[in-house]
Design a protein that fits this description.
Elements: E1 4-8, H1 12-22, E2 27-31, E3 56-59, E4 68-71, H2 78-81, E5 91-93, H3 106-113, E6 119-123, H4 128-132, E7 137-142, H5 146-156, E8 161-166, H6 169-191, H7 196-216, H8 227-238, H9 243-252, H10 257-262, H11 269-283, H12 289-298, H13 304-312
Parallel strand pairs: 1-2, 1-4, 2-3, 4-5, 5-6, 7-8
Antiparallel strand pairs: 6-7
Length: 319
Amino acid sequence: MKKTIAVIGAGAWGIALAIHFARTHANVYLWSRKDLPNHITNTLPRLQNFSLPKNVFVSNQFPQNADLLFLAVPLQYIRSILPNLSINCPIIACCKGVEQKTLKFPLEIIQEFYPKHPLAILSGPNFASEVAANLPTASVIASNKVELAQNISNQISTSNFRFYINEDPIGVQIGGAAKNIFAIAAGATIGAGLGENARASLITRGITELSRLSNGLGGSSKTLSGLAGLGDMILTCTGQESRNYSLGLELGKGRKLDDILKEKTTVIEGVTTTPALLERAKQHEIDTPIIKIVANLLSHHISIQQAKEQLMSRPIPIE
């Protein structure tokens, strides 16, 4: 009997995951808030050069049965989605960030609604368009229960998309949230003409900052040297498809945040994640200078020049 995989959220990432899961010969149920065309080429709103395979079924009704459920809506909206899910299967969060009001990571929010459910997080250096195109990709499935992560990986891995097993969901969620913040900083660095040296240094120091965050919040620094940390950071801080990096580029050129956001039709998670993650770090007395500077930049408290001066004037530690 074919397995059924449900994907909640039909943005670019949700659609790309649905297309990938269809390659595993599963029946894929894709929940979309808006109507989507079925099996028609070049009409998908987020991935216009791709069509949905015939074993992907689109509906605006929440699924009743599935073997695996992947939650691929933006983090700030998952609280409104979770009460509608009456399903008894593992839930895998595919969103990244920190909830603004509660300062919680994705799995912490899901646990409020499903405290006894098997939960995992999917994260890694993945652009949706390349996953949809079946280009070689790797990611991480993290769970406190290694057997669960292994089982999920076995069901969804293919020859072109490998899912590595990780038992540090806290570290993986920190990497997924913070990399968007550093991508804004990296984009601003290039947009302001500060050079590639500056960006490389920022990414490297960003990994150090990530490790401090992970250790301070109960995760492992080792996780941040892998796909969900360094891998995701490199892609998001350099890839032209990165929405957070693109926003940073515009900020670096001197544009105002509100003006940039008015032109966007997709969610840029780093904007909401930055102040939330900074506040969570403060509560645990964790030093996060780059995140603090990005927060001040987004709130117009400092300029790009002032951000550069603040970072370059910090005491020099032993590397």
